[in-house]
Amino acid sequence: MEPIRDRQTTHPAIEDLRRHIGAVVTLDGSVETLRDQKRMQFLILNRHGGAVQVVHEKAGADDRLAQRLGALTPGSAVTVTGTVREAASVKLNGLEIEAADIVVHSLAGTPLPVAVDSSLEKQIDWRVLSLRRPEQRLVFEVQTTLEQAMRAYWARKGFIEIHSPKLMGTFSESGAEAFKVQYFDRTAYLAQSPQFYKQMAMAAGFEGVFEVGPAFRAEPSFTARHETEFTSIDMEVAWTDSHQDLMALEEDWLVEVLTQVADVHGQALEERLGVRIDVPVRPFPRVSLQEAQAIVRASGHTPTKTDDLDPEGERRLSAHVAREFGHDFVFVTDYPVTARPFYHRRHRDRPDLTQSFDLLWRGIEITTGAQREHRYDPLKAQAVERGYDLEPLSSYIDFFRYGCPPHGGMGVGLARLLMVMLQRSSIREVTFLSRSPTRLTP
Question: CA-CA-CA-CA torsion for 357, 211, 49, 268, nearest 10 degrees?
């Protein structure tokens, strides 16, 4: 029987090539660039975000390897076999592969329809090509580490992961923002968040739950920070006294996950994207919405809303906090009832205000959270007060009929978090495939 080939030895990672100097190796990858000169051929092979130079000295008109190399185009998928050599003149990594053979798996068409300097919309049109760039790959490596760190935190805290339905019999946030879909002989809605199901888990005694999954908002928004489909990060926790407990939880969570991202990717982010991950200091500054609006007005901007901050107001408030406190984060708390869903709990001494918060990072909202109303009768009364028909909401409100602990939670947009962290100008740059009011492809 033929022995099983040790693929780690014969197919080493590009970053491990220095340990194989003088050895014959086989590398799979894509062609980044090719220079075909009179006597020499130089090919840059890319794999897993790493790159190495492949060289071949031509041996005359009958050199079949030279012919195969000369026919290559950028983006072609190939397997190269050759000897690893030291090459101090090669700036890439001081190494090169002296080619002995090449297998062409797929020859890329040419010219490529998108370039590095193409518009963002064209980059998205040809996402399969723009994602090949190392800096784009790095974005999703960071995303992977981010989610792993989040899950590690939740696991240590005893949270349970749930996967809630995305087809719902009623809306979960606001009916005006919900996508309606035909569901056999009736209308269903695409979930705007797992809010109702997180609270069901609290009534079921799960105490701490999280979910990372898709959410849908039928908002005709054409801003750099909105998508109609996005990945939502949600947490819900039982036995919280107020929204203050939730803000402390988010501080702890964010510090841990950002520390992990900085440890794993800090150097690469500085080199490739010019981005530094600064782990925030706790506690984060906190201001009430009333205080925030006063700060914004004092800066010379009149907010367009009386019960919320507009985008310009968020930017001005964050700039103020950065100047006064040297902090990139700020919690805005205590939103009026009119600005929040009916299930947010109200302050006992100020029933016109909710125990709620938004978290801003460098002028952009990344989190919305609140203590929930867990009592059956007050919850019904608040829904009626807001003009809701109780019948479509009955399956939700019944969660609380037979006892439910005090609880609260929050939702964070994954792509928006990445956008701010990596200092990108648009959420589409950090979204694998964008969905907007005008885009359903690719």
Answer: 30
Q: In the prediction, which pLDDT does 5 show?
A: 46
Do residues 94 and 130 share a domain?
Answer: no
Separation of alpha carbons 252 and 237, rounded Å: 14
Sign, Cα dihedral of 219, 225, 230, 232 = negative
The torsion angles phi and psi of 59, rounded to 5 degrees, stand at: -120, 25
Residue 3 has pLDDT above 50, yes or no: no
Confidence of residue 4 (pLDDT cuts 50, 70, 90): very low
pLDDT in tens, 150-199: 999 999 999 999 999 999 988 766 556 899 999 999 999 999 999 999 99
Read off the pLDDT of residues 48-64 as tens digits, 9 standing for 90 and up.
878 999 999 998 888 99
Q: Residue 7's pLDDT is what? A: 53
362-385 as b/e, with b when 16 or more CB fall inside 10 Å? bbbbbbbbbbbbbebeebbebbee
Residue range(s) defining the domain that contains residue 154: 125-430
| Residue pair 55/40 in contact by the 8 Å Cβ criterion | yes
Give the per-residue pLDDT at 392. 86
Question: pLDDT by residue (tens digit) across 13-47?
Answer: 888 899 999 999 999 999 999 999 999 999 999 98
Question: For position 254, what pLDDT does the model report?
Answer: 98
Q: What is the 3-state secondary structure (H, E, C) of 144-171?
A: HHHHHHHHHHHHHCCCEECCCCCEECCC
**Which domain CATH number covers 21?**
2.40.50.140
Let me know whether 169 and 85 are in one domain. no
Residues 6+ away with beta carbon under 8 Å from 107: 71, 72, 73, 76
Q: Do 354 and 418 fall within a single domain?
A: yes
d(CA 171, CA 180): 9
Alpha-carbon separation of residue 234 from 72, 139, 395, 408, 420 (angstroms): 47, 21, 21, 11, 18
Q: 295-299 contacts: CB < 8 A, separation 24 or more?
A: 295/320
State the CB neighbour count (10 A cutoff) for residue 323.
9
